[in-house]
Amino acid sequence: MNFYRQRFFHVLAFRLCCCFFSNTWFVPDEYFQSVEVAYHLVYGKGHLSWEWLPEWALRSPLHPLIYAFPFWLLKLFSLDFGFIIRWIPNIIHAFLFAIADICFINWAKSVIGFSLDALYILLPIYFTNWFIIYCSTRTLSNTLECCLMLIALNFYTKEDGNYVETKKNDDSEEENLAKFSIPKIDSFCICLIFVSIAGVIRPTTWLL
């Protein structure tokens, strides 16, 4: 647990750097399907696209509510300065994606075993992926969906705690390799909870 706690702060610092160095916009939905809706909920002003109008109501409010609650707290304590309102949604996403990163690391260790050589190859590829760096802290429902699916995947591949002994072909040293089975019911239920939340936010998740 201490290993993951320490790594979490390292990963969070990395995602915060991604956040503050991505001072651009990517697609309109980054704002008009998330932050703008949350701002309208709290302050009663701002532009709502047609999907959010009462006569249509095609979108789930779950995603904008993630930002609406901090906005409401900032408004309550008169701390809703412009630069805070600007950055708090991205900081929230940096925090969420840092959790997803830790889940990815744990999932990777579960799938490939505890081979440090493999992790040293996999993790640099993951953390230097330019598109993930570019989009990980953006307020897109796709980004939140990615976070939830990484967390769900971590619970789906939980170990069963059994180990078998094998021998290396080169130096005959014994090592323990994790033996996997169908995930336990409790882990699988947690996995389904995160998948369901992702499905509520973006119904196309169910196509996966």
UniProtKB/TrEMBL annotation:
It is a multi-pass membrane protein. It holds the Pfam family Glyco_transf_22. One of its GO terms (molecular function) is alpha-1,2-mannosyltransferase activity. Its EC number is 2.4.1.-. It is found in: Endoplasmic reticulum membrane. It comes from the Eukaryota. The keyword Glycosyltransferase applies. Keywords: Endoplasmic reticulum, Glycosyltransferase, Membrane, Signal, Transferase, Transmembrane, Transmembrane helix. One of its GO terms (biological process) is GPI anchor biosynthetic process. The chain crosses the membrane at residues 92-112, 118-135. Belongs to the glycosyltransferase 22 family. This is Mannosyltransferase. It comes from Meloidogyne floridensis.
